[in-house]
Amino acid sequence: MDICHIPYRFSVTPLKFSHVRRNFCLPRSQTTSFCPRIPVASNSLSETDSSEPKSRNRMFILGMGFVGQFFSQALKNQGWAVSGTCTSIMKKKQLEEKGFDIYLFDANQPEQSTIDVMKYHTHLLVSIPPVVGIGDPMLQHEELLRSTLMDGNLQWLGYLSSTSVYGDCGGALVDEDYPTIPTSELANLRLDAEKRWLNLGDDLRLSAQVFRLGGIYGPGRSAVDTIIKQGALSESQKMRVSRQYTSRIHVEDISQALKASIHAPSPGEVYNIVDDDPAPREEVFAYARDLVEKKWPGQIKQSTNESESFIKMGSPRGAKRVSNARMKKELGVRLLHPNYGSGLKSIINYMEQYETYPSSLP
């Protein structure tokens, strides 16, 4: 499968950025462990330019989770050197077997040696979520980060946030300038982390951007996988069923949006990373079930937990429809999966091609 369809050759060289502080997170009206096997991309963007040393571009990823691993493999396919952090010895071994330099890391008690390593990379992606009662665990050590990274090689910083910072907007179409009114502690902490990472990037004279991701899905993490496994839905998943709209994004499209930002950095900018089709979760699951039943007839049955989870209690909440216009206009991203139909079909094809079905299926 193609990793990226960005309409330009992806090659990054050291850049000098004009240093401009932007009003990055406040609206203009306000003042205040499934690891997918990633195939090598077949298009020209995945081919390493032999005239450029492989070590020229070096990415360090704080938090090698689902998105971090997919993005790491996409960069590695292009000849990047990729390093990152995880919190378990087993995961460290698995990632090292894939060719990444991995550091065991506790963000609450970071080792100076690991932060020292970060400064010798050209790009930094932060993919560690905030913690209730603590906030962003890395930013507890903001002064240490600032003093260590000040004279390093970093040029670009990306922070992965969430569209949850907008809160429940009654079904309104929201862009990056829409008022942020988080309705949960975690969403509030996300918003605070956005501000602080962009401020830190500003202080370090980096091109720092925030990416507000919709619901993330991809191979091993989708409605198709949930239906096949027939596991009980979490309470948060059941609550999302009552939403009139939910925004989502395939991990492939997250990857290409990040690459586009690296190619055309915009200091202090915020981007919504979502597809074109905000749709009810119930609709998405119904479509996924239909795909599975057509592909593997008679292999699944309706689970009690799933049936109960789709019973709506009262009127559906409006949530929000999130606009991706800025991502398309400024980053030039052409979505590989503009809607859940395209994304879920690709996951079915992936499972068939790489034989990753659970034991209950062929």
From TrEMBL:
Residues 303-322 are annotated as: Disordered. One of its GO terms (molecular function) is isomerase activity. It comes from the Eukaryota. InterPro entries: NAD(P)-bd_dom_sf. Keywords: Isomerase, NAD. Belongs to the NAD(P)-dependent epimerase/dehydratase family. This is NAD-dependent epimerase/dehydratase domain-containing protein. It comes from Castanea mollissima (Chinese chestnut).
